[in-house]
Amino acid sequence: METKLIAADIATAAGVTTIITSSKAPSSILDIIGYHSALRAGVSSEEDEEAAAAALDRPPHTVFRPSAAPASRSALATS
Length: 79
Known about the structure:
The protein is mainly alpha-helical. Helices cover 52% and strands 8% of the residues. It has helices at 2-13, 28-40, 46-55, 73-78; strands spanning 18-20, 62-64. A two-stranded antiparallel sheet has the order 1-2.
């Protein structure tokens, strides 16, 4: 699990949204993609996203949002 968190830290520092989930059910990846696609459909604000999320069945996963100020390539290479 520690390596997943380190990878998420590196990815978010580079400006990439990262999702971690259990590998016990590989089909859950499709459920997660469907869930996030449904969230974005017709959502114009953070409040709308929260309301949409409450109405959907959320598959188990953790989302790491990208850094507001992504690190440069050279900074990532040295971390």
